Model the fold of this input.
Amino acid sequence: MAYKAKKHYQDTDVSSVYDRVRFRGPGGALVNWLDQRLLMSAVAGIRQGGRILDLPVGTGRMARRLTAEGYQVIGADVSEPMLRLAQQLAAETGENAPLLRGDAEELPFADKTFDGAVCFRLMPHLPAETREKILREMGRVGRRVIAVYQPHRASLWWLWNGLIMRRKMPLHFASPEELEREFERSGLRLVRSHAMLRWIFMQRAYVLEPISGDQGTAG
Ligand SMILES: C[S@@+](CC[C@H](N)C(=O)[O-])C[C@H]1O[C@@H](n2cnc3c(N)ncnc32)[C@H](O)[C@@H]1O
Done:
């Protein structure tokens, strides 16, 4: 299915500034730190040294952190330019993970290849139908699924960017009730969730597990 985030990051003008615009400077470094703190809370419970799919890997922020923590990581992304940057940055830091070009809607992995599959900063860009398709794929290839959503707008971030600055943001919000139904339709059950920073940011990581013997009910 076509949606903006699938094409957007294939543009080198976009990929080349991705890290600098979002994660550099004092504010950006704080956001990156909070994202990684969220990641580490969410992967707790996945066995040490386990196999994790980072989807989409982007420029490799999460893959590098997970590799440094001793997990065996594979990163996948649909954007060649983002993957090239991930490769360069991994070579610089020595935290190398295999990377491959692939579409999250149709993953080239066998069932239960991974102990966990993590998805940061993609779901809010997708319509519900595509989110469910990707969740089902993650639940097929992974024993545990970690997906970050923005379940409501009640945050200082939204007050500033959405209401005061009136920035146009192509974000899809899904309420906790909608998410509950979305997970169920995708064949997943909620284990727990973690807020990135309550009342300040909207992001929340959902830790999910496939409902035994079920890969989802929607077609
Ligand atoms: C906002 S970036 C997030 C990257 C990374 N997870 C992070 O947190 O920095 C979104 C990424 O999703 C990728 N993407 C969009 N649609 C995709 C799809 N269907 N399959 C795989 N990657 C996709 C884009 O190429 C881009 O690299």
About this structure: Residues 151 and 175 are 5 Å apart (CA to CA).
